[in-house]
From TrEMBL:
It comes from Pseudosulfitobacter pseudonitzschiae. Belongs to the TRAP transporter small permease family. This is TRAP transporter small permease protein. The keyword Transmembrane helix applies. InterPro entries: DctQ (IPR055348), TRAP_DctQ (IPR007387). Keywords: Cell inner membrane, Cell membrane, Membrane, Transmembrane, Transmembrane helix, Transport. It comes from the Bacteria. Residues 30-181 form the Tripartite ATP-independent periplasmic transporters DctQ component domain. Its main location: membrane.
Length: 189
């Protein structure tokens, strides 16, 4: 059982580490979009797509980089208290707070899946079965949701990024939970 848990931890950590290392270069994409926005507003006609595209890139950067940040321990903590605790006390507190985070991420993931199904043209009450049907080919995609801006991009790509990012964050939380359990049992990770 312990080897299965360790393989799960290493697999999730490897995926999120690679994803985080790739996504961290998204800041340069964001900078390029905002630079083009500034240049086009100054010297040419303003581009309609730049600010909304910058928002989409920022969503991807933030959502897909979150699991990497959690893995590296770079997320915000109350270090005034947490920093002085023993490793065992930290593991107990993390064990409890990760369970709360898993619940929160589960609710967020369900909402993101529902929103993604809506953006693909599904207006009924079972988004999970609809998306599985889209993947298997038994369901058709309806009228695709577009932004209400003048540029009017499709919304489904950024919503798919949200679903993937929240799923990876949920997996990373479960990995951290397993690490805390192993620490409390006295095992090295």
């Amino acid at each position: 059982m312990q080897s299965l848990v360790r393989r799960f931890i290493h697999g999730v950590d490897a995926v999120n580490h690679r994803m985080g290392r790739v996504v961290m270069y998204g800041i340069f994409v964001l900078m390029a979009i905002l630079l083009w926005s500034s240049i086009s507003k100054t010297f040419f006609l303003p581009s309609l797509w730049t600010l909304e595209m910058a928002q989409f890139v920022m969503v991807g950067y933030y959502i897909l980089g979150g699991p990497y940040s959690m893995q590296m321990g770079d997320h915000v903590r109350m270090d005034l208290l947490y920093g002085g605790w023993s490793d065992r006390k930290k593991a107990w507190v993390d064990l409890f707070t990760v369970l709360l985070l898993v619940f929160y991420l589960g609710v967020m993931l369900y909402g993101a899946i529902s929103s993604t199904a809506y953006s693909l043209g599904y207006w009924k009450t079972e988004p999970l079965s609809y998306l599985l049907g889209v993947v298997t080919g038994s369901e058709e995609i309806g009228r695709l949701e577009q932004s209400s801006s003048a540029w009017r991009p499709y919304m489904w790509p950024v919503k798919v990024v949200m679903v993937v990012g929240l799923f990876l964050m949920l997996l990373q939380c479960l990995s951290e939970f397993c690490k805390d359990v192993l620490r409390l049992r006295g095992h090295k990770i």
